[in-house]
Amino acid sequence: MMTTDWIDVGAFDAIPARGARMVRTPQGCIAVFRTATDEVFALDNACPHKKGPLADGIVHGNKVTCPLHNWVISLETGLAQGADEGAVETYPARVENGRILIEAAFLKRQAAE
Amino acid sequence: MQKLVVIGAGMASGRMLEHMFEADPQAYEVTLFNAEPRGNYNRIMLSPVLSGEKSYEEIVTHDDAWYADNAVTCRFGERITGIDRDRKVVISEKGETPYDKLVIGTGSAPFIIPCPGHDLPGVVAFRDLEDVDAMKTAAGSDGRAVVIGGGLLGLEAAAALRLQGMEVTVLHLMGHLMERQLDEAAGYLLKKDLEGRGITVLTGASTKAIMGEGRVEKVVLEDGTVIPADIVVMAVGIRPSVALGQAAGLEMGRAIKVDAQMVTSDPDVLAVGECVEFDGNLFGLVAPLYDQARVAAKTLLGEDDVFRMRELSTKLKVTGCDLFSAGDFADGEGREDIVFRDPGRGIYKRLVIEDDVVLGAVFYGDTADSNWYFGLIKDKTDISEMRDTLIFGPAYQGGAQVDPMAAVAALPPDAEICGCNGVCKSTITEAIGAGATDLGSLRATTKASASCGTCTGLVEQLLAVTLGEDFRSKEAGICGCTDLTHEEVRRLIKARELKSQTAVWQELGWKTVDGCHVCRPAINFYLLADWPLEYQDDLQSRFINERKHANIQKDGTFSVMPRMWGGITNPAELRAIADAADKYNVPTVKVTGGQRIDLLGVKSEDLPHIWADLNAAGMVSGHAYSKGLRTVKTCVGTDHCRFGTQDSTGLGIKLEKALWGSWTPHKVKLAVSGCPRNCAEATCKDVGVICVDSGYQIGVAGAAGMDVKETERLADVPTEQEAIDLTIAFVQLYRENAKYLDRPYKWVAKVGLDWVKERVVHDLDNRAALIERFAISQSVYQKDPWAEHAATKTDAYTPLSDFRLEAAE
Ligand code: SRM
Ligand SMILES: Cc1cc2nc3c(=O)[nH]c(=O)nc-3n(C[C@H](O)[C@H](O)[C@H](O)COP(=O)(O)OP(=O)(O)OC[C@H]3O[C@@H](n4cnc5c(N)ncnc54)[C@H](O)[C@@H]3O)c2cc1C
Ligand code: SF4
Ligand code: FES
């Protein structure tokens, strides 16, 4: 049995509202987002279009706009919105005692680049 | 080839030529005369040009390339003075031009009330671009305008001049506004709406005289009221321009008489537009003129077609003022009214009914269903079945859902959507089916909403209904979050003193919780430009380049470009750049087109450190990533060059030191050249200064990116200080007024160079006030973001955590 299903990736306060930070893993980076309503989301930090760094995008509602060519990605589903097609992996994330926890799977399931 | 001569490049004749060339490009060799010194443009869009919401270039309907493609000989700026029908020639100052067929399309001339003073400078009409330019020139920042005439034209002029910042009074002879299109109740609501915009409306006002020494100063009414005025706009009506036809002996009524094929009493002479009379009718709206144009083109090609009169409807093109009227709504024996009022929301609807048929309709405040009612009027539909719910619109008929889209969905296929161009619903849905999936291509294929534009909303709804999710509105508002345009939002931020993004979203009814990547950067800029002391700049509303003060590259790394003031550097700076490039393994070092050095391919987490190193050598951010001041290019000037007339390098450095750090609607680039040889390429910059013996020539609104355009001269000034003052005042005026992502050349095309000159060059108090407001803004924003971020924000540039090592274990 695994004792820790959730991994502490950092302090909630370290991410501004409507902002993001990235977390490095051996197989690439994930982006951790904080919305205006203080929800957190974790997604692969590589846009389905041309791998743009989503953590550098503009966060609005529960969506982020990729900084390279403006694809809009849902933080909840990882799906590209509107006419664009594609998806990024999402990982369950939550906040506890001011810390951000992400389900451990993100360390292993990370798709190789 | 047969020779076709056309007199007047107007809305009607332009459309006629289009139809004709489409059907048979080889039929005629065409010569087109126009008294105005330009070709065809969309006259009905002069109101948005006057208000600054559109530029003249945007309303041109036929450009040089179109005339060239169709081999039209253009004789613009040449007035025809006579027609000799026996010899089949038209006569102008430059001589005679023979024709086989002649089309007269001379339109109308504005009617000027012959009261004393009507010919004073400052009295203008509203008919062509010259009138618009004259009004814009007069529209000083606190100028006063009197508009005589409260009809469609007068009210559009009044609203536009108000938008330009003038104090406006409308004088209307009748008891209520637009009495030909509106009943009294709707006229009252319209008056209230205009007054809410700060326009004074006087009804029952009869003009006695216009007075002034050498130019307009005031208007005196019959009842003795005196109203001060810097300009007087006469918009009291039009008269068909028929002098040519009359002198040529054509059969006349109140205008040139034509038959249903648009042929005059001379079989080789046709006439179209406002200069014709058909079956006792005169014309003043474009919809029937376009029908005439179609028929005339057919007649010229020897095909059969018949012009028929049809019902007309009217809408007022004043943003935010929803008004519609159609048919006959006078009281009368046997006529009944159905009226709906909601004073709280300013809504009024009235239907006039006779024998179970709708004869007329007037709507104010909510015109969403107007096309459906217009269809009932045109088709003389029997409404006895739906009479009880008729006033609530099509959504209530047949139990359909109450949904804004339902009204459009419920329209029958032959319902007219675009009144100007007579385009019905099925034509549009077929075009959508054939691949026209946005407004632009629909306009190109069907002409729907391409004239006055008031049906744009309906056409978009049709797109949305037909395409469902696939349709995204591109034209209307800033983005999907709001229907308001950039200009409207800027105005409302100032007028309602909105000082935070939340206030903007709440007060202006944003449709999303916190905007999107399109509107947030724009609103953030508007707020920081308008309220530099009160508003707190929001990094999360900035594009990544401005958030991280570096240009993002396609691989997610960044570029670093320090300022080199006026393009001047020294060995110490070059050494520091070289050291930094070594230390951070910068893959590419490049000399840019802006006279400085770019370090490309720097990793996010290195940014604060490379900046700190460059800061230590005295360098600051070059803002190569910002919608703000970029570079000031200079040439060597008097320091070394044998032709230099002034210290161009020195002035360039002073300008860069004055302007750096400021945020602007789009990027701003300057250059200063030491003489007219112009080695710094100053004539294609946002602001470009050319030094000459007598001083400095200040040019503005140049471009050399996606468009190329030479600067226009703002002013010539003798001293360096004035050159600096004018530049700062210009930049501040741009900051306060332009739409986000409009470079200065686009903005100046909208407001007009004269409008800019008035505020920056002529009005010295205003110039000083602009400079003062710029200084206040710089007191907050002129700081090196690199130093600030290197000291306080390094975290934001690094990963939140790094699991690479742990996992490797
Ligand atoms: C670095 C430089 C090219 C070079 O190697 O010389 C450059 C690089 C870029 N330019 Fe430029 N422009 C550079 C000089 C110019 C010039 C020439 C000049 O300034 O003398 C022009 C034409 C003049 C003008 O500004 O119109 C120019 C017209 C553009 C445009 C078109 C702007 C327009 O209004 O038409 C864009 C796109 C935009 O801004 O929206 C653009 C956008 C860009 C961007 C920022 C594209 C982007 O959004 O990522 C490029 C960033 C490259 C990077 O990854 O760092 N760049 N760009 C030049 C930097 C000058 C400097 O020292 O700051
Ligand atoms: C500000 C404004 C807003 C309007 N808004 C609307 C609207 O919303 N909806 C609507 O349906 N209508 C509107 N109209 C009315 C519409 O513009 C006219 O009905 C239409 O332009 C008339 O077309 P035309 O071809 O008859 O004449 P014009 O478009 O006036 O063209 C006639 C041309 O002939 C030229 N000409 C005249 N005499 C000579 C000569 N002797 N030699 C050579 N050239 C000559 C003139 O210079 C002019 O360029 C508006 C008009 C104005 C001014
Ligand atoms: S021209 Fe400018 S924007 Fe285009 S590739 Fe070169 S640097 Fe990039
Ligand atoms: S890489 Fe994200 S939009 Fe192109």
TrEMBL record, chain B:
Annotated binding of siroheme, by residue: 679
Keyword Transcription attributed: no
Domain annotation FAD/NAD(P)-binding: ranges: 3-296
Pathway: Nitrogen metabolism; nitrate reduction (assimilation)
Annotated positions binding [4Fe-4S] cluster: 635, 641, 675, 679
Residue ranges occupied by any BFD-like [2Fe-2S]-binding domain in the UniProt entry: 417-464, 478-527
Source superkingdom: Bacteria
UniProt name for this protein: Nitrite reductase
Source organism phylogeny: Bacteria, Pseudomonadati, Pseudomonadota, Alphaproteobacteria, Rhodobacterales
